[in-house]
Amino acid sequence: MNNTIVESLQIAVRRRLWREQFVAAARRALWGSAGMMLLAVVVHLAARPVRVDAVLLVIIALWTLMIAWAGLRRPSDSACALWADCHLGGASAFSTLLEMREGMQAVPNAQAVQWLEHWAAARVPHSLRLLGGRHESARLSRPLLCVLVCTALATIVLMLPGTAPSTRQELAAPSPASGADRLRDAEPLASVELVSALASALRSADSRRATGRHDDNQTSAAWTGKRDGGSGSRMTPLGTALPGEPTTPGGPPLDPAGGVAPTAGAKQTSGGASGRDAGDSHVDRADAGVSQVPRSTIQVQRRESSERLPSPERQSDMDQLATFDEGLPMRRRATDRADPGLAAATPPPATDAAPLTPTKAAYVQAWMKASRQRR
Amino acid sequence: MTADPAADSAYADAHRKLQDLRALLDGVIVGQGELVTHLITAVFAGGHVLIEGLPGLGKTHLAKALAAALGLHWARVQCTPDLMPADVTGAEIYATAAGGASTFEFRPGPVFAQLVLVDEINRATPRTQSALLEAMQERQVTHAGISHRLPSPFCVLATQNPIELEGTYPLPEAQLDRFMFKLTVPFPARASLRALLDVSLDAEPADTLQPIAYPADVLRITELCRTVLLGERCKEAAVDLVVATQPDSSGSNSGARRHIRYGASPRALQAVVRAARVGAVMAGRSHVDIEDLAAVALPVLRHRILLRLESELDGLDADATLASVIDGWRRQY
Lengths: 375, 333
Known about the structure:
The complex is a heterodimer of chains A (about 375) and B (about 325). Chain A has about 375 residues and is an all-alpha fold. Helices cover about 65% and strands about 0% of the residues of chain A. Chain B is α/β, with parallel strands linked by helices and about 325 residues long. Chain B has 2 domains: about 210 residues, P-loop containing nucleotide triphosphate hydrolases (Rossmann fold, 3-Layer(aba) Sandwich); about 110 residues, Orthogonal Bundle (Helicase, Ruva Protein, domain 3), CATH 1.10.8.80. In chain B, strand 6 and strand 7 form a beta hairpin. Chain B is globular and about 70 Å long. The model of chain B has no long low-confidence stretch (mean pLDDT about 90).
């Protein structure tokens, strides 16, 4: 009889403690939800766009975790007895009685235990009254208010279009190839496919320019070969003449396309696109042969060479001719092309296998636009 | 109400006896309810009590009333500097029998009473104090190689005066530890003084008291109190209480660390629990509560701690220091 009465109090206390656990879990979940929303807002504004459904998913997971935590932690008998002792006037009777029943203490006197059961049973109605009279606040108002405010804030902020400050920062950074003012005029980024297409177009243009260079090299080789023939000066490409014009004695015949046909002399000295090795010898330089080609021949050659190349690559072509005019060796000229200052004017290589990054794509676009403006 | 009526009768009877005794003494010693309660607790816990108070506050009267109410044989020792140990414990005297044979026989001293009132114990010499306190601890007196058991129940009520300390021998800490309680007798409230005139103006009520219990009852209730249940929570609380008075312990608070030089001994822990058990029976329970521990904490601990000299010079006393310690401890439970 006494046991039943005491157990009824224990059940009531357990229900009460469990409810308090759920309230505490809800309170924590509310605070956590508010925190998650604030975090999402901060990330959305500062780092990267945050999707609303991702935030909702995290909050739902948080609530599930908290509710599960509260539900799985069933208040133990000792916790219930201790709570009843502390808050319901139990005077340590319920916890002591529980210890006696569970055999935690050797019972020195059965009379004492019986009197304790009697005392505890007599105390239960009073404790139940106290339990019914206890109305503790759930303390949910503040976290609830905070969640409402955070929800409103998050709703407003997360509905804004996503920003990519990292891309913006990269665009705003000065590019070695073009100025910040030009980049500011750049159009917003297209898709990666569009950029890849642009890169492919550039690559094809690059290949065309390479072809033109090859022709130029052949031309310069012919000039050098002519000079190596022992009768030309440095500024006078020997053996180059317009179709129909008379060629120099011993010079190579000109092909109909304006190129220089390979000659025995050219093959003899350099054998490649450059006849520099043959013509750079001290003896050759000292050989001040008489130029048989008028100055107009060189200019016509230059004009034809320029007209043969596509316009965007004209700068490179001019650079090549100027280098030639200065008489620099071909190897050094190639080294100069690899110079960063010169490479800045060259579009980055694009391959089909690796699409360009947004940064490079922006750079390619800016370079294209600058080229168009220059043209 | 329970399956075993004997259980009911044992604790209920003890509870009733203690309540009646307290009511009786409250009627005789007006306005000293807490003092009376603590005194009853100490007697039924088997401890000794040191009572400190100004003259005229009824200390002797209280001892006489208690002895009369419990039907105990009591004796009084008025301590003076020339009091010898034999005056307290007893001595052998040369006696002649009726047949003419002369022998030495032991004549017990006042310590062989069931309730001994030792007035102004701090006026006795340390030698006499030591003999008395040894009897209190051992509950026996050894004289000429022969041990003489003291009667049971046996309780010593010693008094001391907080003023007029010239020519006194304050009890050392080791001997103070033998007393379960140190009680202070406060000055009565005005209403109590007014009631005192109605009770004891023309008569000494202690002389006319009729006993409501007998030494056998005292022993039975004392034994019953030893069976009172002590839960784990209360055991932890009692230990924490004693640990809280240790200045070097991590469980002590800042007040204890700052003001206490030496904390309470393990004997204090035993005294707290024994006294709390009597308090539980007095409250009609067969189990100890935290409140029982808290109620006896101050009288058990106040003479067992030693304050720092700086704190004493600052005017702090043991009661004020212990009050903060007990408050801090109570908040944990």
